[in-house]
Every structure is written in structure tokens, then in C-alpha cells.
């Protein structure tokens, strides 16, 4: 049986802030290639976004919540650092309590971790149905340049062996020991970065290219076999460095480049990017997804599109629904001034 | 059953009194009541004290009635705190009436007291916002301004009630309050000022909302046959009615009708053997301007939906054919929650006897009046008909 | 703060998270929020749980400004500005009060179609209280 994606949904918070507003406040904007970014509302958090996007993914199949046998939630900014989180989403959906549910919350790689957890479940339970939701709104001090890129968004996927619209061809991962880049010590609410630029870029390129190269080798594929490649987007420039090293061209990156209009989506970066690539794809297209989490590690997944079915809530539709806030409103929403 | 009369009524000043405790406020009202009893007041005759009070700001939740009773020299009575949110005082009065009617006690004190300005703004909201359906209404982010705003918005939608209608209630009541030496706000306001006040819960602005108030009131209730032992001009309780309703507005049959008011008024009219047309003067529960408009309709003073035009025609002005809230109402006189109901009775006692403290506020030649006191957004309502 | 204890809140999760109503086994009408005895026929306390669609129309609304917000919502009003509270008439019949999100307050009108979704309501004792709010239906469903 071929396992794959049977449905998906996207949810982007409605508020946006433009790069110009940052420039006005700080004199410059540090997020390369990002024009504007999504901002979560005061009453949204990663569990409400995950619940919303999960319901959308199920409706896109369509599938009722009682069919879910595995749930995985991914985010680097959950509302609690200790307390099981996925139960909130399942209760919100009305999914059964005997669903095996896990939280993936320690790095921006969490989105693909959750997807792979879903596929592992299906490998053992081929008639099951895995629901995976990645929602994130990374957060750092307003003084820290890495904050500039941080946006918000969510995507969820229904994974199963039936009604698939994109088949999983294979996956590969790579982990290694790096530090000083994008980390949050215990007892701290804000993500930090020591800004050791070249060193961190080295980690990004090394981990992503090793995972991707291993997968391409395993599948016997070349970069030109792929219509789309989605790489982790801490900003809108980083993916190009890794993609270029792997031999991909810019047009292959274009469809999944969600950070230009939404910002750094953290653990939801590659999931939302994948949803965007799926939206742009046609039957027969291949999509390579390469996530990255500081510390560091990367997952690579290869999909083949087998259906033209598109969900009601796509990235383009969600990205178009927006209302702008200024920088002071942004600070208030983020709780930076209170 | 015995007929019941009010033979004395007193009220403290309403306002903000950082120098007065709840006990001292009640004493002020109690002594004012004692002074009003024409043939003299003898505390030894009092058998029961029903005191309306919501929360005392949290410091005395239990045995509040015994506390204020003994402070004013009434230990050893049947003391009871009566709580039905903002209608506590009105319910204290009818509870006293029922006691006397049943012949349990001959002379009964009904009163109310509230101290709302001692607590911080935040704590005041704690005490104010929890008389609706807390689980749903409060947790939807509303206090009573929001709930009455929901009613007002729908009333405007269904009946064409306007911003001007709402503000005119405030203008009228402030005009009356300016003539009331015991009112919290003794100053007039203009329609323009009332219409342009800052928004609190749209469509209600600051001038559509009553304030928080310290104050107390007390009335002396006895049987009609004993009344002449106290005064030549008792005010008789001809009828009363009470009705509860679904606490949450969303549960009610109609959003723009306080069913509790309708049913309580029906009972009160029936008991008194009168109809709305026989009511010459009224003190109604105008915690928000929209509430006074609802009262006109639900008490039968005008047709449903016609409160705005009825107000604009001037009927309820102090110079009109049925003055409403000659005291200034909750809006200008103040709304010390537990005291409001018996405070209305204090006003009506003097209006019907023709001995209002400041003659500019005296409505001449009125013999029958109505009191209307609402708990929360209409979860409890009490209506009382009084006559000379 | 209006103190709603953790167990008290927890007991209403089916209603707050996914709008579970109670359909009267005698008259068939849906009670939401639940009542002990059916509020329509007043003759039965036997109910079947039904999950409501969450869709409906605005019956009435208010826009809560600085002075109108209870303390537990004061921070929301400060950070996010004026917020709408609506009574929504649900497709299945009942009316229910709820905040409205994802809308510019000046765009709220009586009759506008909405649907419910899970949001943060407020926080007490460090615990996030989740529940439904209404959002505009356009682009939804």
C-alpha cells in the first residue's frame, strides 16, 4: 500500500505587519527577502491555530474526526512548556481519546518530525489515519534581529493509505551537534541567537544538504526530477544557499517560498511551504521537502503528486485575507509592552 | 390578608463617601427614616429587618443584616439579608410587606445599603459583573454595560430607537437629579454632551451608564390598621409583583423585552386593581438609558417599540403627565445596588405625601406611583404600586 | 476576576470547545447551553447530545471599549483594541453569546453570517481557558 497525503489545510492569522514598519521603528529590517509577515491575534495561540487547521485538513478529504488514529502536534511556541498539548486539539476536534497523540516542540524541525511520526504509525497500521498539525509563531526579544522575520502560520495534513493526493516516496534525516544558533535556555521565554553568522549558516547548509543528498541517493533522483523544492525558511534567502548547493534552481523554490509574505513560520515553515507547493503542483510533479532545526538536524521527504484535488483553504487564499497592524500594535499583541 | 403601608422613609446622601463605612451609611438612612415618622419612631416595635445588599465589596458576606441592624440599635430582630443583585432593595421591601401581610410581625424595617467606591476599580467590576450568567455572559467579555448594549442594539434595529432617544433619558434624569440634594450627580447635562460621551460598550456611552455609588435607605412598613398610630398620611402598598427570568439574555424569548418586568407588573397591577393608565408617577430602573426605555414599554406606559417617541413627547418629564425618575433615577441619583429599591420607595413616599425635601422636584397632585427595580439584566424584577 | 474554578470550566468543555448541544428526547428541540429541564417543552430532562454546526447569524452585538471590559478581558482590550461581543442565532435554533474575532469591529452587522472556532478566552491562575468565538463566515464553511 502506498502511503501519502490525503488532505491538507492551511490557516494564517489575519494580521500582517510590513517590513517598512520595522524600518521606521528600528532604522532597518533584518529579515532578508521578507516583505511582510503574519501576526497571531491576541486570542490565538498554537493550539487554537492547530485545531482550526486540523479541522480544515479533515474537511478537505473529507473525513470525520473519529477516523483519526494518530495525532502529532508541532510547534516551537506552545502555550505551555509542560503539559500535554495535543489533547486540547483532539478535544476541540472531537477526535477519540484513544488516538495516540504526541507533541513535537523542541526545534523548528518539529513539523517534519510530526509528519514522519504519522508515516511511521501508518507503516505499522496501514488502515489507520494520521493527522499532523504544525502551528507556530516563533518569538524572540524585540531587540534581537532574528525577531524581525518571525511570523505565524499553520498547516495540517491527513496522512493515510487511501484517497492520497501526494504519495510519500521516501525520507532521510541527518542530525549533528551544533550550538549558539536559535536556542531557548530553560527558564527563558524568548529564543536567542548568538549571531555567529558563518558558523550557523554552516550548520544550516550541512544538515539540510546531508539529509537531502541521502534521500536523493536512496531514491536515485536528481534535482531536475523535482518540480518544487521546499527548504526551511528562517528568512527568504537561506533556502537558496542550501538549494543551490544541492543543484536546485530558483524557480523550483518559488512556489514553496511562503516566508516572503508570511515570515519565518518556525516549525510550520516547511509544512506551510509544502501546502503551497501542493497548491501549485499538477499530477506527476515531485516535491522535495527539507526541514531544519537548530542544534541541529534536518529531515528530507520526497512526494509525488497523484491528484489535482485542492482543499478549500490554501496558502494563497489564507495569505490574501489580511489586515495590517502598525509596530506599536504589534508590540502590544506580542505582549512586548504591558 | 392584611393591607400594608409605609409610615416612614429615609435615605442617606448618595455619592462617594470615603469617610463613611457601610454601617454609618445605613445609620444615616435609618435616622432619616426615624425622623420622618410623624408620631415618633419606637425601635422596640420593630420585629424584623430585611436588608438588601449585594456584596459589601466582599468584606462581610455573611450576617450583613444583623451587623447593620445592631449598629443602629436593633439587636434581637428577625434580621435577613436579601440578595437579588440590583433588585435586592425592592425585594427587601416586598419581603417586609409579605411578613406584615401574613401577620408575623407588625412593624418591619426594609432597607438596603451598598458601599461601592471603597474598592479599587478592578474589584468593583468583580462585584458588578457577576450577576448575569457568569459562565456565558461574563466569559464572553461583558459586564452589564455590554449586556444592556446587546439589548439596545437590537432595540435600535427592531424599532428604530436612536442615539438621541438614549441620550435624552440621561438628559431628563440629570435635570431631575440637579434638584435632588441627596443625588450623586446634582448637575444637568446637555443632549450634545450626552451624545458625544466616550463609548463604553457600543451603542452605550459613558452617559448611558449609571455610576458606582455609596448609599443606604430604609423604610418602615406596618399594617394599614396600625399605620395611623404612626402618621395621618401613610402610603399604602396597593400591589406588588415579582418575576425571575432566564439569567442569560441569549436564553430569553425576546431580546428587547424584560419578561420579568412584564410579569411582575401584571401581578402588581392585578393586586392593586389598577392598570398602567392609573400610574401617575414612577421610579424605574434606569441603570442604563436603554433600561428606562424598556421599562416604559414593559410596564405598559406605551406600546412595544414606542419608548423613544413616548420619551421625546415629554410624557415622562417632571412636567409631563407621568413623570418618571423625578429623583434623578439611578443615572443621576446614583445606584448603590442594595439600596436602590428602598431608595425608590423613599422618593415615592415623599412624592405621594407632597413633602419632597426640595419643592422644585415635587410633582403636584399625584396619588398613585409605581416602583420598578431590576436585578442584573432582568434576571429578577420587582414592581410595586404605592398610593396615598 | 469572576472566579470560575478549573473543574467548573472543565465541565463545560463539550460546549466551549465544540458546541455540543442537548436535544430534548420529548420535543426534539436543541438546548444550548444545556438546561436541566428542556426550556422549550419544560417536560423532559432526557437529552441526546448533538454537535452543532457552529454556524449562525448575528442577532445583536456590542463593541466593548476600555470601560466596558471585565478585568479578565482588560488586557485583551488594551492590546487588541475594541472587541465585538455578539448574540448569535445558530442554525439549529438556539441563541448564544460569544465574542467575535477576525473582524474589524466596524464591519459587524446584525444578520451577518458567522461560524464558531476555538480561541483563547482568557487566562486565570496561569491556565489558558479556551472556548468558541465567532468569526465571519465569508471564506469559511
Summarize the structure.
The complex is a heterotrimer of chains A (about 350), B (about 400) and C (about 140). Chain A is of the alpha/beta class and about 350 residues long. Chain A is built from eleven helices and twelve strands.
Shape of chain B: globular
CATH class of the largest domain in chain A: Alpha Beta
Output the structural class of chain B. alpha/beta
Stated plainly, the CATH topology of chain B is called Peroxisomal Thiolase, Chain A, domain 1
CATH class of chain B: Alpha Beta
Strand order of the largest sheet of chain A: 5-4-6-7-1-8-11-10-9
Low-confidence segments of chain B? none
- Tell me the major beta sheet of chain B: 9 strands, mixed
Strand content of chain A: 15-25%
Oligomer: heterotrimer
Find the count of extended strands of chain B (DSSP E, 2+ residues): 11
Please identify, by name, the CATH architecture of chain B.
3-Layer(aba) Sandwich
**On the 0-100 scale, what is the average pLDDT of chain A?**
97
CATH superfamily of the largest domain in chain A: Thiolase/Chalcone synthase
Termini of chain B, distance in Å? 19 Å
> Beta fraction of the residues of chain B?
15-25%
Helix content of chain B: 25-40%
Give the helix proportion of chain A (percent range). 25-40%
Mean pLDDT of chain B: 95
Which short descriptors sum up this protein?
heterotrimer; A: about 350 residues; alpha/beta; Peroxisomal Thiolase, Chain A, domain 1; 2 domains; nine-stranded mixed sheet; three-stranded mixed sheet; C: about 140 residues; mainly beta; OB fold (Dihydrolipoamide Acetyltransferase, E2P); five-stranded antiparallel sheet; three-stranded antiparallel sheet; 3 helices; about 15% helix; about 40% strand
Amino acid at each position: 500500500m502506498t502511503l501519502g497525503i490525503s488532505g491538507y489545510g492551511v490557516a494564517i492569522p489575519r494580521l500582517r505587519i510590513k517590513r517598512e514598519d520595522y524600518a521606521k521603528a528600528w532604522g532597518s529590517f533584518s529579515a532578508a527577502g521578507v516583505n511582510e509577515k503574519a501576526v497571531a491575534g491576541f486570542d490565538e495561540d498554537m493550539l487554537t491555530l492547530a485545531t482550526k487547521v486540523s479541522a480544515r485538513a479533515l474537511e478537505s478529504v473529507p473525513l470525520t474526526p473519529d477516523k483519526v488514529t494518530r495525532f502529532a502536534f508541532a510547534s516551537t511556541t506552545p502555550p505551555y512548556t509542560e503539559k500535554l498539548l495535543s489533547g486540547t486539539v483532539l478535544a476541540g476536534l472531537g477526535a477519540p481519546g484513544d488516538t495516540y497523540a504526541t507533541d513535537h516542540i523542541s526545534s523548528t524541525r518539529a513539523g517534519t518530525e510530526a509528519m514522519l511520526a504519522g508515516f511511521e504509525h501508518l507503516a505499522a497500521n496501514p488502515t489507520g489515519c494520521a493527522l499532523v498539525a504544525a502551528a507556530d509563531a516563533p518569538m524572540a526579544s524585540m531587540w534581537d534581529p532574528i525577531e524581525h522575520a518571525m511570523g505565524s502560520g499553520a498547516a495540517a495534513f491527513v496522512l493515510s493509505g487511501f484517497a492520497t493526493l501526494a504519495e510519500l516516496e521516501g525520507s532521510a534525516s541527518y542530525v549533528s551537534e551544533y550550538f549558539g544558533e536559535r536556542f531557548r535556555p530553560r527558564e527563558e521565554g524568548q529564543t536567542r541567537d548568538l549571531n555567529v553568522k558563518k558558523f550557523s549558516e554552516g550548520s544550516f547548509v550541512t544538515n539540510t544538504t546531508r539529509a537531502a543528498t541521502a534521500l536523493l541517493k536512496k531514491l536515485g533522483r536528481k534535482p531536475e526530477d523535482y518540480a518544487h523544492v521546499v527548504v526551511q525558511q528562517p528568512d527568504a534567502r537561506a533556502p537558496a544557499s542550501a538549494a543551490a548547493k544541492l543543484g536546485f534552481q530558483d524557480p523550483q523554490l518559488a512556489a514553496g517560498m511562503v516566508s516572503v509574505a508570511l515570515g519565518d513560520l518556525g516549525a510550520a515553515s516547511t509544512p506551510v511551504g509544502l501546502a503551497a507547493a501542493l497548491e501549485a503542483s499538477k499530477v506527476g510533479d515531485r516535491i522535495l521537502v527539507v526541514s531544519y532545526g537548530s542544534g541541529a538536524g534536518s529531515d528530507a521527504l520526497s512526494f509525488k503528486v497523484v491528484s489535482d484535488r485542492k482543499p478549500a483553504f490554501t496558502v494563497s487564499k489564507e495569505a490574501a485575507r489580511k489586515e495590517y497592524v502598525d509596530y506599536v500594535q504589534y508590540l502590544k499583541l506580542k505582549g512586548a509592552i504591558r | 390578608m392584611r393591607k400594608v403601608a409605609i409610615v416612614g422613609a429615609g435615605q442617606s446622601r448618595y455619592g462617594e463617601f470615603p469617610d463613611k463605612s457601610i454601617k454609618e451609611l445605613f445609620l444615616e438612612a435609618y435616622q432619616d427614616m426615624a425622623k420622618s415618622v410623624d408620631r415618633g419612631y419606637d425601635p422596640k416595635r420593630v420585629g424584623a429587618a430585611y436588608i438588601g445588599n449585594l456584596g459589601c465589596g466582599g468584606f462581610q458576606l455573611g450576617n450583613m443584616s444583623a451587623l447593620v441592624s445592631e449598629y443602629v440599635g436593633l439587636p434581637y430582630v428577625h434580621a435577613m439579608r436579601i440578595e437579588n443583585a440590583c433588585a435586592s432593595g425592592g425585594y427587601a421591601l416586598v419581603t417586609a410587606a409579605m411578613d406584615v401581610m401574613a401577620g408575623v410581625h407588625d412593624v418591619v424595617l426594609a432597607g438596603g445599603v451598598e458601599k461601592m467606591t471603597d474598592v479599587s476599580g478592578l474589584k468593583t467590576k468583580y462585584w458588578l459583573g457577576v450577576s448575569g450568567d457568569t459562565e456565558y455572559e461574563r466569559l464572553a467579555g461583558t459586564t452589564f454595560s455590554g449586556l444592556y448594549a446587546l439589548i439596545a442594539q437590537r432595540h435600535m434595529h427592531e424599532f428604530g430607537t436612536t442615539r438621541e432617544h438614549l441620550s435624552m433619558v440621561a438628559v431628563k434624569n440629570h435635570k431631575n437629579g440637579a434638584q435632588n440634594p441627596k443625588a450623586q450627580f446634582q448637575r444637568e447635562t446637555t443632549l450634545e454632551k450626552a451624545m458625544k460621551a466616550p463609548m463604553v460598550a457600543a451603542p452605550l456611552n459613558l452617559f448611558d451608564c449609571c455610576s458606582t455609588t455609596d448609599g443606604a435607605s430604609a423604610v418602615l412598613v406596618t399594617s394599614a390598621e396600625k399605620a395611623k398610630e404612626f402618621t395621618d398620611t401613610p402610603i399604602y402598598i396597593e400591589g406588588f409583583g415579582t418575576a425571575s427570568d432566564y439569567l442569560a439574555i441569549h436564553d430569553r424569548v425576546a431580546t428587547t423585552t424584560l419578561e420579568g418586568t412584564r410579569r411582575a407588573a401584571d401581578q402588581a397591577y392585578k393586586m392593586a386593581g389598577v392598570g398602567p393608565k392609573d400610574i401617575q408617577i414612577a421610579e424605574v430602573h434606569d441603570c442604563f438609558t436603554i433600561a428606562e426605555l424598556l421599562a416604559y414599554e414593559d410596564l405598559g406606559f406605551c406600546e412595544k417599540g414606542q419608548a423613544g417617541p413616548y420619551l421625546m413627547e415629554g410624557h415622562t418629564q417632571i412636567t409631563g403627565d407621568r413623570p418618571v425618575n423625578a429623583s434623578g433615577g439611578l443615572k443621576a441619583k446614583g445606584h448603590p445596588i442594595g439600596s436602590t429599591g428602598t431608595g425608590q420607595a423613599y422618593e415615592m413616599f415623599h412624592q405621594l405625601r407632597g413633602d419632597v425635601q426640595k419643592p422644585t422636584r415635587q410633582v403636584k397632585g399625584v396619588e398613585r406611583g409605581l416602583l420598578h427595580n431590576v436585578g442584573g439584566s432582568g434576571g429578577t424584577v420587582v414592581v410595586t404600586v404605592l398610593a396615598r | 476576576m469572576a472566579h470560575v474554578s478549573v473543574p467548573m470550566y472543565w465541565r463545560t468543555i463539550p460546549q466551549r470547545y465544540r458546541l455540543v448541544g442537548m436535544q430534548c428526547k420529548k420535543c426534539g428541540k436543541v438546548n444550548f447551553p444545556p438546561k436541566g429541564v428542556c426550556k422549550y417543552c419544560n417536560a423532559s430532562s432526557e437529552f441526546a447530545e448533538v454537535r452543532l454546526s457552529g454556524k449562525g447569524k448575528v442577532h445583536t452585538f456590542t463593541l466593548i471599549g476600555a470601560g466596558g471590559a471585565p478585568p479578565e478581558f482588560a488586557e485583551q482590550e488594551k492590546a487588541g483594541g475594541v472587541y465585538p461581543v455578539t448574540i448569535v442565532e445558530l442554525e439549529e435554533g438556539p441563541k448564544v453569546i460569544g465574542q467575535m474575532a477576525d473582524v474589524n469591529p466596524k464591519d459587524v452587522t446584525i444578520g451577518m453570517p458567522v461560524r464558531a472556532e476555538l480561541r483563547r478566552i482568557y487566562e486565570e491562575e496561569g491556565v489558558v481557558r479556551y472556548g468558541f468565538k465567532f468569526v465571519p463566515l465569508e471564506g469559511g464553511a
